[in-house]
Every structure is written in C-alpha cells, then in structure tokens.
Amino acid sequence: MSFNPFEYVEVMQAWNAFIGFLPRFIAGILVFATFYLLYHGTVLILRHVLERRKAHASIISLTVKTYKIALITTGVVLALQQMGVHITAALTGLGVLGVALGFAAQDSVSNYIAGITIFWDKPFYVGDYIEVGERYGRVTEITMRSTRIRTRQNQYLIVPNRTIVNELVINHSKNGEVRVDIPVSIAYENDVMRARDVLLAIVDPDSDPRLSQYLRANVVVNRLADSGVDLYFRLWINNAEDEMPVRFEYLEKAKYALEGAGLNIPFPQRVIHMRHENGKESN
User: Fold this and answer.
1) What is the structure's pLDDT at 10?
2) Residue 181 has what DSSP assignment?
3) Which of 153, 181, 260, 264 is most buried by a 10 A CB count?
4) Based on the structure, what is the number of domains in the chain?
5) Domain check: are 196 and 163 in the same one?
6) Residue 150's domain spans which residues?
7) pTM for this structure?
8) Which residue has the higher pLDDT, 18 or 185?
C-alpha cells in the first residue's frame, strides 16, 4: 500500500478548517441558546401580564407565538452570522417573497389585524346581541378572521372582521337593560292620556320577569301623522335576547287593549275636494 501525500494534505486541510470553524460554531450555538433560554425565561411573565390585563385568550396565544417567533428567528440569524454564514442575500430574497405574499393575502391580513383590534378593544363578547349594518343577531364565536352571528332566523352569519371594524356596530347587550320602542297609532279624536293609561295598564313586571323592575314603561307622542297620532309604547327589558319576542307580544296586546277601551287605530284616509263649474267645492 503506497502513501499518497496529496490525500494526507487534503485531510490536514479539512482538519484545520474544522478546528478553525469550531470556535465560530460554538459561539453560534451559545448565541442561539441565549435567545432560547431568554424566551423560556420571559414567556411566563408575558403571559401573566396579558392575563392580568384581561386580554382575550386568542390575543394571549397570538402574542406569545409572535414573541417566540421573533426571539427564535433573531437567535438563528445571529447564530448563523457568528458561524460565518452570509445571510444578507437570503434575507433579501425572503423580504421580496414576503412582499409578494402580502399582496396576495392582503384581505386575510386585514381581517387578521381587524381581529386583533376586536379582541383588544372588546366592543362585544360572545353571547352579546349586536347589529352590524342591517345584520342583527347573537355573537356565537369570534375568530381572528371573522365574527360568527346567529340571526333571528337561526341562520349562521359569518362576517369578516374588517367589515365589523369599518361599519357602525350597535351592541344591544352592553349596558344591561334595553328599551323596546313599539309604534302604536290612535285616531285624532281619541285622547292621548287615555291611550297612555290603557297601554301602561298591560305592563306588569311582577308577572313578566323579562320586564325591568327599575326602569318604568312610558308612552310618548312620536309624530302627528296624516291619519292619526303616532305613539311610542316604550318598554324596558332585562336582556337583549327578549327584544324581539317582547316587541311582537306587546304589540299584539296593545292592539287588543286599545280596541277593548274603544280607542280607534287609524287607517290611511284621503279627503277629496271637487270643484264644480259654478266654483263651489264639495267633499
């Protein structure tokens, strides 16, 4: 077996390269380990702070994951730099790719950011009855992309979060009691005070637990219309979920109560004036 000096030189060069790279490799490992330990040493503190601020569980999870990705990614980049790896070109390529993906997924990103806004601002919670534009229903679920609402017709409505953020949102459950305005009309010849007494007589919070014990019902004049006097029969209820059932039920009760008291509910009327050839008018 003959000795090949060229193979010996190659082995020595590889060994010397390894010995020269070993300190940089160890330094890179130490840098990465520092960031890894930093994450595990601070993540519990971050989670505790968010929980004390009563942040939503989704916000806590998102923040912790973002924090982890940021620290670990920074640790990897600095570790590779310590090892002598040139990552500038790679980062530039990733930046261009990120911009392209951002344009392709801008709708998803906008919904995602809007979801963070909803979780942080807390305009409503699961179980609240809200109105978004012409949509009304009970919030059943809030995700980072959309808000799910069960409508009055028991339909499952999925509203993108950016729509929630950009439109006017009315939360019917935010302040507890909700006022229900029931439109009622009476004829001009009827007495408003009499109609008020008749309507208020059918309201009994003791027998109907849906009605508020503290905020009293009242009747106000809303408009002097063409055919009669428009009233608002205003009731206060304890929970927004009873808004529609109470409205329908007491509108029917109002009809029977007014009819039973001899008060007329008007219907559209028109008075026609006819002019004769002699200039006189007749109805």
Assistant:
1) 61
2) E
3) 264
4) 3
5) no
6) 123-171
7) 0.60
8) 185
